[in-house]
């Protein structure tokens, strides 16, 4: 039996990934790093961050894999680029350094389609810098997920996202698979499933649906 750590467990993707992990028989304990306490559940162990700093909750505990769902939007940070960088790059890399220094063999992270450290687009550039930073840490297995537009109940309540999703659904048949809208729970399942892949190295996923449907019985 294994123990995994999940950061960002209160967001749309993270909360769904947490439910998937708690239902997965491969894991006897699931650690969730959060800013506020979660409802107690079997197998769930919580590390509550102090003073809103997620990294302050990290302890010297062995885990077999880390699932990172940390992330925000420019809207949520009021257009503050420094705050966006702090959440989407600095916190992720801080978690990565902790995991690498504690011998965690598997690190899985949510990025975005188009991530590129040399991009002229701010969002894509930050995501690309985050990816490059994680790759430089040299994890035995690094799984990077690059989803396109995600659909889900919380997302579709926002007007801008509703309009974008509606437009994407119209043109989706003309798009390559990596650009098609994807249900958020499909990404969550794929994140948890990636911990069962026995092949090491860096894996980047733009076509995520097949991995979401796989079933694994062990963690490498």
Question: What would a concise description of this structure say?
Answer:
This protein is of the alpha/beta class.
List the keywords.
single chain, alpha/beta, Rossmann fold, two-stranded parallel sheet
Tell me what you see in this structure.
With 220 residues, the protein is an alpha/beta fold. The chain has one domain (2-151, 182-213): NAD(P)-binding Rossmann-like Domain (Rossmann fold, 3-Layer(aba) Sandwich). It has helices spanning 12-23, 81-101, 122-137, 159-171, 184-193, 209-213, and strands at 2-7, 27-34, 44-48, 65-68, 106-110, 141-145, 150-151, 182-183, 201-205. The strands form two sheets. It has a seven-stranded parallel beta sheet, sandwiched between helices. Strands 7-8 form a two-stranded parallel ribbon. The mean pLDDT is 85.
